[in-house]
Structures are given as C-alpha cells and as structure tokens.
C-alpha cells in the first residue's frame, strides 16, 4: 500500500512533493513566481503526483491505451486512486457480505446502523416547505446573512466581544471543506506569510486543500504513537521554530484522526506561544458538540484565542453536528482587530468566492438558521446532539470491554480516553487489510475507526476482528 492510499498523507510528503520538480509538461516555477503561478504549479504537481507520474513513465500501467481509447483526446489520462477516506465507502458498497461494516467515513449512524436525519432538522425543513413566501433566488455571494450571524454566535459565544464590536466577518461556504479552501485562498492573496503548519497526522484532505489554495504546507508534531496521546513537547518545539507570522491549523476539538485534544492548560500554553511568536491561528471546527456533547465546551479553544483580542480564522461545518453532510453547509469567520478591517476583508472574500462557485446553496443554511434562531428548536437540537455524542461514548466502552473480555493483547485504554467520532486504534496497514479481507470491516488504512458507525450489535464482530488481527498479523 503506498502512502497516498493510506489516508494519512503527511505534510512532510507534501513538502517533499513540492520540492520535487518532475519536469513533466514543463510546469515548475521559481521562488520568485507570482501567487497565481505558484497556485498553477501546485495544481500541476497535485495532478501529476509522484506515484502517478512514475506509473505513466516507468511501468506504463496507468497510461496504457486500449482499443476503445483510440482517438480520445483524453486517452493519456491516468486513472487516479480512490480517495483514502471516501474510497472506503466505495469499496464497502461493492462488498456483498451480510456482515460488512463501514467504519471508514466519519458519518453518524443509529443503533440500527442507519444514517440519521435529526428530528429537529425534519421540523425545520417542514417549516421551510410550509412557508410559501420562500423563494429560490440566488443568495448573496457571502450567503444567508442570518445564518452567518448565528453561526458566529454559535462558535464564538453570544456575548463574544468580536461580535459585539463587529470585528468578525462570517461568510457562508460549502461546508467545512469549502470554508477551509476559501480561507486558504484569501490568505494566499492577502496575508504576508504563505506557510501553513498542519498537525501530523491530520485529516487527509488538509494538505491538498491548502496546497491547492496556494499555501505552502509544513507540519508540526502532534501525536505520539508510543503514548497514544499528545506529543506536546514536539508540538511546542515545532511551533517555536516556525517562522514569524506562519499560519497554524488547529483542530478546535475532537482531533481527526487521533481523538486526542490538548487539555485546557495546554491550549493556554499553545495560545501564549502562538501570540508571542505572532503566528496566525486557523481553526478547523468540524465537530463542535461531538467531543463533549456540549457546544460551548467544544468551542472553548477558539474562544480563548478570541478573548485575547488577537486575530484568528475559523472554518465551521454543520455536517456532523446537525447531520447535514450532503447539504454542504458551513461558514468561514475571520476575526480582525477592527470593524473597518473586517469589512475590507469581507469585500475580498467575495472576490475569492465569486469566481469559485458564485454564491452558496440556500437550503442547508436555511435549516441551520431556522434551528439556531428558535429557542425551542435549538434546545431540541442540543438534546439530539448530546444523544449522538453519548452513543459514541457508549460504543467506546462497549468496544473496550469486548476486547478486555477476549484478553486481546495490548493496552486498549486509548479507546475510552480518545474523544470525538474516531478511535485511532494503532492497528497497522496489514492488520487493517486483514480485517477487511477476513471480516468485511472497512476502515481507513491508518487504523482509524469511526465509532459513530458502530452499534451494540456489531461490537462483537469488530472485537473478534481486532483480536484476530493483533494475534495473527504482525
Ligand atoms: N475538517 C475535518 C477535521 C474533518 O474531519 C472533515 C470531515 C472536514 C473538515 C470536512 O467536512 P465537511 O463535510 O466538508 O464539512 N471528515 C470526515 C468526512 C469525510 C471526508 O473526508 O470528507 C472524515 O471521515 O474524516
């Protein structure tokens, strides 16, 4: 299995790729290149990844021309590998086994293993349908104004000084991914330092999103595989040696894939260090409410950075906490020092968004706004959200107990210590592929399992598979 298929393309790999000049199609730019040249170069390198370019020049496998290809102007196009995370679902769908289990994608499932549409979402949608005055006109470039305001309050807190002083601009984007991408492009165009530090490991899409946004991706140590906890010393050392002004990507809570978050005291040390070195914090908040079951608690890290009056960026997703995965609803907030700066920043965000997708979709944002504006619906949402978080915590305990009952070799206490949607099991690539082959259990190759995909009736199957994997496969 090559690294590109492991779901864990490290930032170092990205830097290495960036330094590699494939020389293919003559796409390479010197360090004095303009931002748009650099973006084009990054795009070319992304499309011509080392694995793919090697296979077309050396083995000729991917570029082989079959008779049906002849005459196509696209016959040279190499088949790209499936996405390391979403590709797991593709493989799962092809499996006809009745015991198959998809623990790959981070998407909530009920005890019955079914996707869940929250009751509160159904109610909000009904309200929208019943309201005949609603139309399907284009939204403004920055999206639904009420959604933006309410999203900012959700992450920063209703009484946040940045909202009170109008120092934050919030724009509706295409879920968390789109918010990260728009934020990345804005920084490439308007921020003096184009280096972004991302944790190792991190969500597999981060390096791609930021590279294609035109930023240069570097990494900081985050996870210690020995302790299966935070490598705080490594994190501090790496951020301490970052150049002044560098952007730092931080998972607001429920770190993906490790399930390991800094303590509040550690967050405070990270904050002090980031501020004293003049680094720029960029939070990815994809799991607010999923770590602890409490929306305010899960926003604490972000709020600490806003409370000190400094600047920061936040990408918010409503995919998980409202179960609106396919509605693609999220928000990008940029907290500035003054209202005047925030206004100018917003005017430039519009210039990033307009040629990218013009303006965002209306339906998902309307659902979120309907829930956040109404006290009764909001309270109902928090109860449903807590129930999802609690079910995941219960699955952690059930899996831990099942492995203990089987006397499975190893210390599995990290299953109950880690938080959020995922357990970073420590299983290696060979053990993961054994579990898929022999037990029809699908998960990412880095050993991450989505606890949200597990239920009381499937725990024993997973525990049997893990037990067999660690006892039979090195
Ligand atoms: N940021 C982090 C840390 C994430 O884990 C995810 C989703 C996102 C952003 C993007 O979420 P949006 O759906 O764009 O709001 N990660 C999940 C979902 C599958 C995927 O890879 O997109 C995961 O399984 O890791």
TrEMBL record:
BP-aspect Gene Ontology terms: amino acid metabolic process
SUPFAM superfamilies the UniProt entry points to: PLP-dependent transferases
InterPro entries for the chain: Aminotransferase_I/II_large, Asp_trans, NHTrfase_class1_PyrdxlP-BS, PyrdxlP-dep_Trfase, PyrdxlP-dep_Trfase_major, PyrdxlP-dep_Trfase_small
Alphabetized GO MF terms: L-aspartate:2-oxoglutarate aminotransferase activity; pyridoxal phosphate binding
Domain Aminotransferase class I/classII large: residue ranges: 100-466
EC numbers, comma separated: 2.6.1.1
Record's catalysed reaction(s): L-aspartate + 2-oxoglutarate = oxaloacetate + L-glutamate
Cellular component GO terms held in the UniProt record: mitochondrion
Keywords: Aminotransferase, Pyridoxal phosphate, Transferase
Pfam families (UniProt xref): Aminotran_1_2 (PF00155)
Cofactor requirements of the protein: pyridoxal 5'-phosphate
More info: In eukaryotes there are cytoplasmic, mitochondrial and chloroplastic isozymes.
Subunit organization: Homodimer.
Entry's family note: Belongs to the class-I pyridoxal-phosphate-dependent aminotransferase family.
Protein name: Aspartate aminotransferase
């Amino acid at each position: 299995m090559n690294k590109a298929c492991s779901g864990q393309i490290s930032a170092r790999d990205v830097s290495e790729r960036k330094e590699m000049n494939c020389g293919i199609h003559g796409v390479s730019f010197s360090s004095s290149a303009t931002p748009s040249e650099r973006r084009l170069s990054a795009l070319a390198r992304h499309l011509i990844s080392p694995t793919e370019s090697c296979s077309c020049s050396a083995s000729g496998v991917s570029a082989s021309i079959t008779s049906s290809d002849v005459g196509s102007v696209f016959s040279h196009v190499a088949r790209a590998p499936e996405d390391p995370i979403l590709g797991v679902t593709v493989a799962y769908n092809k499996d006809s086994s009745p015991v198959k289990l998809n623990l790959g994608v981070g998407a909530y499932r009920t005890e019955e293993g079914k996707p869940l549409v929250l009751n509160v979402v159904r109610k909000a949608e009904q309200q929208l349908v019943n309201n005949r005055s609603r139309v399907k006109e284009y939204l403004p470039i920055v999206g639904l104004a009420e959604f933006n305001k309410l999203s900012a309050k959700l992450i920063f807190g209703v009484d946040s000084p940045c909202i009170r002083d109008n120092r934050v601009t919030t724009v509706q984007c295409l879920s968390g991914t789109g918010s990260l991408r728009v934020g990345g492009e804005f920084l490439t165009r308007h921020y003096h330092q184009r280096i972004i530090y991302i944790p190792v490991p991190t969500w597999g899409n981060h390096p791609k999103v930021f590279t294609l946004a035109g930023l240069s991706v570097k990494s900081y140590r985050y996870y210690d595989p020995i302790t299966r906890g935070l490598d705080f010393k490594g994190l501090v050392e790496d951020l301490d040696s970052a150049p002044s002004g560098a952007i730092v990507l931080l998972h607001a809570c429920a770190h993906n894939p490790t399930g390991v978050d800094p303590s509040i005291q550690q967050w405070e040390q990270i904050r002090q260090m980031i501020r004293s070195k003049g680094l720029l914090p960029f939070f990815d908040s994809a799991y607010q409410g999923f770590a602890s079951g409490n929306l305010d608690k899960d926003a604490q890290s972000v709020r600490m950075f806003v409370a000190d009056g400094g600047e920061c960026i936040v990408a918010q997703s409503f995919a998980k906490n409202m179960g609106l995965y396919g509605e693609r609803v999220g928000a990008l907030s940029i907290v500035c020092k003054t209202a005047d700066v925030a206004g100018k920043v917003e005017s430039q965000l519009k210039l990033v968004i307009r040629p990218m997708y013009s303006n965002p979709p209306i339906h998902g944002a309307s659902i979120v706004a309907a829930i956040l504006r109404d006290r009764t619906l909001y309270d109902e949402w928090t109860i449903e959200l807590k129930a999802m978080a609690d079910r995941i915590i219960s699955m952690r305990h059930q899996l831990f107990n099942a492995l203990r009952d089987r006397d499975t070799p190893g210390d599995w206490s990290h299953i109950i210590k880690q938080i959020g949607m995922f357990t970073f099991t420590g299983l290696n690539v060979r053990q993961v592929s054994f579990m898929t082959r022999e037990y029809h259990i699908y998960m990412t190759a880095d050993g991450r399992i989505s606890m949200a995909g597990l239920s009381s009736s499937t725990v024993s199957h997973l525990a049997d598979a893990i037990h067999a994997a660690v006892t039979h496969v090195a």
